[in-house]
From TrEMBL:
It comes from the Bacteria. The lineage of its organism: Bacteria, Pseudomonadati, Pseudomonadota, Gammaproteobacteria, Enterobacterales. Residues 1-43 are annotated as: Disordered. Residues 18-43 have a biased composition (Basic and acidic residues). It comes from Salmonella enteritidis. Residues 1-16 have a biased composition (Polar residues). This is Uncharacterized protein.
Amino acid sequence: MQKGSINGSYDLNSSGFEKGDTARRSRTTERSELVSEEAEQHRDNIRQLRAVVKKRAYCF
């Protein structure tokens, strides 16, 4: 089968699909890394906030 043949079928082994799949995987990996970095930053912020609250609790 050829890519985009009359019956609407696609050759999933075509290089166009592979390139698109690789690009999609790359974007997904980038998003995952970004989400992980944001989650790590969020955890750091929570830790710092808890430390401040704990210190202030001892002051009163």
